[in-house]
Design a protein that fits this description.
mainly alpha; Arc Repressor Mutant, subunit A; 7 helices; elongated
Amino acid sequence: MVGSMDHVDRILAQWNRERPDLDVGPMGLLGRFGRVRAHLSREIEHVLAAHGLSGASFDVLATLRRSSAPYRLSPGDLLATTMVTSGTMTNRIDQLEKAGLVERVQNPQDGRSVLISLTSKGLALVDEAVTAHVENQHRLAAALSPAEQRELDALLRKFLAAFE
């Protein structure tokens, strides 16, 4: 409900009472980002867990799926799409390989290197999971009208551009 006080409003009111000399407006904006992110992350992880995946494993599988057939990338290309260390990526790939969702295959252009490839089991699972994930995203965004979603998206794109 627009106009009702939320948790962040109560914090801002306390700061305004205690430190009226400070403009705490950005604290509200960033505080709400953090709280919304926490709620969204929890909801997204719940849907992915229903498919036996974590956000990290889904990220690897979805990156491979988006790469087009034959759904394979070098470990370096996978690493470039994430913000994790090479050791963390190796661990993710190892776990997905043990689950039969990816396999290491020899790179046909360079026999000294490998590519990470989706298996047929991995392809089926990621297609099922991404369908549920997108449905969930629609559900989560439904609090805003389509016009509000477009407006917020445009504002967030502008805000994000300041950091990237």
